[in-house]
Amino acid sequence: MKVGGDLHAKGGLNGRLLHKEAASLLITPKQAVVLTRNDRRAPTVGSCVADAVAADRSAALADARARDYLRKADPVMAKLIDTRPDFRPRAWLEQLPPLDAFGTLVFQVIGQQLSVSATRTILSRLQQQFGGQLPSPAELLAADPQVLRASGLSGRKGATLRALAERFVDGRMSDEALSRMPDAEVEAALTEVPGIGTWTARGFLLVALDRPDVFLSGDLALRRTIQRVYGFDHTPTEDEIAQLAERWRPHRSLAVSYLFASEFEA
């Protein structure tokens, strides 16, 4: 199973890693996005717990409403939801280091066209090269490109990460700015970077920004999952799945999570 990516705009969205049930994070990714890699000071345990509890309650309320909406809008989706009463779509992030905006992009660029196990191996090697943590944009720019190659990154992916790092260092991109942008603006800003396409940009919206209505067009694994779940006699086209996904608005992100869960959690 390939993780997928933008090298030729096909592939799956991080399969088993992305949708395996696990305990929730102490600090949610949405909170982590405001902690830049240039500020490595650890928050206090008390503040983390308080913030996490408040965020979990808010997320649970929103998630319940979204599930109810999807259940009413789509009888097939209703079956997926009802068989997973304790499903937490973002629990899989426990298996990754805390990710800010740049770290999320590092993770996603590494995962383009690779299996989940290969992605995790390279991510771990990269952390080892930088003292056990993912590099900040400035640290990545200062590093010899051979360091990235030694971690298992191709020259093309290394160049993409350096182009992203330059934008974070010179201020063209930042955690705060990206978090304030509408989805379309985030996608436009990211796809200006060589090596970043729609798949990676929308994955960033899902993972880093926790946006509720993101659909992964071009994801072959998603198309095959929809074929199985909805009983298509062929791999559905982009137009067919886009039409199907219209009934999930404005909660397409959660619908996608349920679909991948049905595919990979067994």
- Give the DSSP E fraction (strand runs of 2 or more residues): under 5%
Name the helicity range. 55-70%
One letter per element, helices H and strands E, the order comes to HHHHHHHHHHHHHHH
Task: Detail the poorly predicted runs.
Answer: 8-62
Keywords:
15 helices; elongated; Endonuclease III, domain 1; 266 residues; mainly alpha
Write the topology of this structure.
Blueprint: H1 15-19, H2 29-32, H3 45-73, H4 75-82, H5 101-111, H6 116-129, H7 137-142, H8 145-151, H9 155-170, H10 175-180, H11 183-191, H12 198-207, H13 220-230, H14 238-245, H15 252-264
Structure description:
By secondary structure, the protein is mainly α. It has a single domain (1-266), classed as Endonuclease III, domain 1 (Orthogonal Bundle), CATH 1.10.340.30. The protein contains 15 helices and no strands. Helix 13 (220-230) crosses helix 15 (252-264).
Summarize the structure.
The chain is mostly helical. The protein contains 15 helices and no strands.
